[in-house]
Amino acid sequence: MNRRYQKEKQNLIKGEIYEIEWVDIYAYSSWFTDEEIDNKLNNPNIIVSVGYFVKKNKEYFVIAMGKETTGDALAEYGGLKFIPHGCIKKIRKLKRLN
After folding, report:
1. First to last CA, the chain
2. CA separation (Å) from 97 to 13, 17, 64, 94?
3. Please, which residues have CB within 8 angstroms of residue 76's CB and are 6 or more apart in sequence?
4. What is the pLDDT of residues 22-37, one digit of tens each?
5. Phi and psi at residue 76, in whole multiples of 5°?
6. Which of 2, 29, 40, 87 would bridge with 22, disulfide CB 3.0–4.6 Å?
7. Are the beta carbons of 83 and 61 closer than 8 angstroms?
8. Extended beta strands in 6-93, E state
9. Is the full-model pTM beyond 0.85?
10. CA–CA dist 77, 65 (Å, integer)
11. What DSSP character marks residue 96?
12. Is the CB of residue 62 less than 8 Å from the CB of residue 80?
């Protein structure tokens, strides 16, 4: 796990907006040569996700794409992503424009 991420994850604030850079986990059902496998190993799919920080546990970091703000909804968060800690490379807190 990335050392920078280890430091960043200590100061997360629920409801704040974060950008998370992480390595995607993927699978293929077709056949590959050694060269094609090496290419995938050396060029992982890097994903950048943005969302409201909801919570974390030992295994996952959870963000939401939407957040209810009026208090009238049945649920507070929508569009959840559960990202395994071991996949996260960087986290950056974003500033709100309001």
Report:
1. 34
2. 17, 11, 18, 10
3. 67, 68
4. 999 888 899 999 999 9
5. -85, -30
6. 87
7. yes
8. 17-23, 46-56, 60-67, 77-84, 88-93
9. no
10. 8
11. P
12. yes
